[in-house]
């Protein structure tokens, strides 16, 4: 099966390209390189021994997307490409709505025109807002999103669900990720944000490497054991493998108009300070950090119940938070210029 991977040069996308190859799929990568780097393709090549087709295309460009579908005959699409910084989305909501939703609709129209039936969407646990009960299950009511980014994911899920029921033969899954961290164990690919990282772990590793003076922990007065936010941290390699399992599940579904959602997390919640302490312990590094005020748009605590993804999709998280933090640090050491 030939699979289009949008945002395939990004953090989760690049690891998924590797996982797809290892499972016997043929990935084709498109990315506009807004928050990624062409060097990632070299890392993918070194891991897999293969050059995969790459197109520098923005998913918001319907003519270029349509031309790509005309050229390559896809069996499925995994859609990662999106803006994803919670804080930035609060400051620039229109940018997030325009980019994240139009790109989705462009892809769905192209899939319908060219008769592509399998779609896996990169969603997020942010669709739950601040849930009233933990852990969250797929039937947990979606609360109002705490950020425009989270709202784009909730709206996108609704668009996909409605479109599936109007497009005979289309089968789609939305994977609600929790907090992806880590890097490939080879240290050949990892998280490589352009500019100031919006995610916690690359900010930690850049601070530990001396690229940033200190890390700010946003908020210490939450209703948690140490006052910092609680998250469900998942190794990016485990998350990449979930996309392979998602495609396997779609292949099994013979009925038309199939749509479902899955939480993809470990089922364990850890505070930000627990994560920092684990990073220091496994890597033997002291981190310079300070505690600041809360950040607008952040959820206090959230972690998954993973029963559905374990049993229905036959996927289980295999790597620990310590594994992820060790891999993330090895990746940072590889890409940081040595003094």
TrEMBL record:
GO terms for cellular component: cytosol. Pathway: Carbohydrate metabolism; galactose metabolism. The keyword NAD applies. Residues 4-327 form the NAD(P)-binding domain. One of its GO terms (molecular function) is UDP-glucose 4-epimerase activity. Its EC number is 5.1.3.2. Its cofactor is NAD(+). InterPro entries: NAD(P)-bd_dom, NAD(P)-bd_dom_sf, UDP_G4E. It catalyses: UDP-alpha-D-glucose = UDP-alpha-D-galactose. One of its GO terms (biological process) is galactose metabolic process. Keywords: Carbohydrate metabolism, Isomerase, NAD. Belongs to the NAD(P)-dependent epimerase/dehydratase family. Homodimer. This is UDP-glucose 4-epimerase. It comes from Dyadobacter sediminis. The gene is galE.
